[in-house]
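Structure (tokenized):
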């Protein structure tokens, strides 16, 4: 993990800062609206982001967290990312985030792993969230 990277881009359940506080005692230093480019799919109670340079804006929150390295492994576990498993549910990847107020910044993003059969199964047209905004139902 890049020790200098203390930003996380959340496009689903991690956007809820009260959840972050309750689960991991994380209080972001700052939160900004932003977007990344790709496709967003509904996978039941959570969304899946897939990289696609031909995709569209996927909206979320850029969370700047002091000492993210101290809690990132716990978040990895929650997100289904295991760096030792090539077929884990998600991959944590450094990506460029476009900030709604202007500018760009790198942040960690949990990307659906195309090597995972569950991810491949949900990333179909009927599950596409075309407006790029996750809403729990």
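Design, position by position:
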């Amino acid at each position: 993990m890049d020790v200098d990277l203390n930003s996380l881009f959340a496009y689903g359940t991690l956007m809820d800062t009260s959840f972050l506080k309750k689960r991991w005692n994380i209080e972001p230093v700052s939160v900004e609206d932003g977007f990344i480019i790709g496709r967003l799919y509904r996978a039941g109670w959570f969304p899946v982001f897939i990289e696609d340079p031909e995709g569209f804006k996927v909206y979320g929150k850029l969370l700047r967290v002091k000492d993210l390295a101290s809690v990132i492994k716990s978040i990895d576990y929650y997100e289904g990312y295991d760096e030792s498993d090539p077929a884990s549910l998600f991959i944590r990847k450094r990506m460029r985030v476009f900030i709604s107020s202007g500018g760009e910044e790198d942040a960690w993003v949990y990307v659906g792993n195309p090597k995972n059969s569950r991810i491949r199964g949900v990333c179909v047209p009927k599950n596409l969230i075309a407006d790029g905004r996750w809403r729990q139902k």
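Reviewer-requested clarification: The longest helix spans residues 17-24. The helical segments are 17-24, 72-79, 117-122.
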